Each structure stands twice: as C-alpha cells, then as structure tokens.
Amino acid sequence: MLLCTPLAVLLCASLWPGGEAMTGGTKYHELSDKEILDHLLHRQRYDKRIKPPVEGSLRVNVSVVLLSLSSPDESSLHYEVEFLMHQRWFDPRMIHDDGQRYEYLNGIHHHADIWKPDIYFIKHGTFKENLSPSNIALRIHRNGTVLYSMRRHLVLNCEGDLHIFPFDSPMCTFAIE
User: Fold this and answer.
1) Whole-structure pTM value
2) Looking at residue 15, what DSSP letter applies?
3) What is the pLDDT of residues 114-127, one digit of tens each?
4) Is 88 exposed, middle or buried (0-12, 13-18, 19+ CB in 10 A)?
5) Residue that wins the pLDDT comparison between 17 and 173
6) Cα distance between the two ends of the chain
7) Which end of the chain, N or C, is less packed with Cβ atoms under 10 Å?
8) Where are the beta strands (DSSP E) in the chain?
9) For 91-108, what is each residue's pLDDT tens digit?
C-alpha cells in the first residue's frame, strides 16, 4: 500500500502496483503482454463503450474471406457459409512502447474489455456455434492499430418461389452492415 503526502501525490499517482513508474509516456519494457494490456485497459483510463477518440470519422477496414459455401438445401432453401472476418482500426488509447519486445500484443483474453465496431449480418439465419476464444483473434500493435478477427459459420435462408420448383431461381443473398 502506498501512503502519499500532499507533496508526493504526483509521484504516487504515477506508480503502478509493482512499483515501476507508469506515466503518460509509459514504457513497458519489463512487462508481459498481459500486464501491458491490463494497464492499457484499466477502467480508470479506458471505457469500452466509447469509440476511439480520433479526428473526424473513425475508419474501420473490414475484409471477409469466404472459407466455404454450401449449395442451398432444396427442401428448406437453407445454405451454410463459413468465413473469416477481419476488422482493423486505430485506437490512440492503445499506443504503447514495449521496447520492440512484441510485434503485437495478444488480446485474446481481453476481447470483452475492448471497444469493437458493431457489425450486423443482414438477413442472417442462425450462427452454427457461439463465438468462442478459439474462433477469434485480437492483436494490438504498438502504434495503436487493432486487428480483430473472427471465424463464423452461418446457416442462411434463400428467397425463392417453391410453387414453381424445380424451375425456380432462388436468390441467396448475404450482407454485412
């Protein structure tokens, strides 16, 4: 426990529980990636409900890699799609200096504590499995770039006119917003 006199308040306020100084220009040379993320995402300095503070609009780059796409089931007009979705954005609250120890911080255990863009799947059916840690990756680079990837497996519905089956042409659309 730290006891601070009024003269030493500034010094005590900048001490991390381990005793090392943690200031605005913090250097994380001796800390593990988990300890760095614990400090970066501490609730007194980071609020996951607030989007990253950037000038103008926040740009989120989204890419989708299609892994598999099944043919629609003739009786139900359901089809399955499996894909990887990568999202990349800049969060100045995540900038850190780890002395070149890590190429990126592995934030897999902190993914619930970080701001993420709201992604909506238009006309989706059901997810085949829940989003588990084995299906996501979260990388935080020292320049504040965040890369969030997830693997999803969806069961989707096609629109078609079954009254003229098998001469119909079902429309199987999939959109992300």
Assistant:
1) 0.72
2) B
3) 999 988 777 666 66
4) middle
5) 173
6) 49
7) N
8) 61-69, 78-90, 105-106, 121-122, 126-127, 136-140, 145-157, 175-176
9) 999 999 888 888 899 998
- Per DSSP, 59 falls in state P
What are 57-95's pLDDT values in tens digits? 999 999 999 998 877 776 677 788 888 999 999 999 999
Q: Is residue 24 within 8 Å of 93, Cβ to Cβ?
A: no
C-alpha distances in Å from residue 35, one per residue of 46, 63, 101: 15, 30, 13
Residue tagged 């504040």 (tokens): 144
Residue type, 108: I
Confirm if 48 and 57 have CB atoms less than 8 A apart: no
In this structure, are residues 77 and 170 in contact, taking their beta carbons and an 8 Å threshold?
A: yes
**Which residues make beta-bridge pairs with 66?**
83
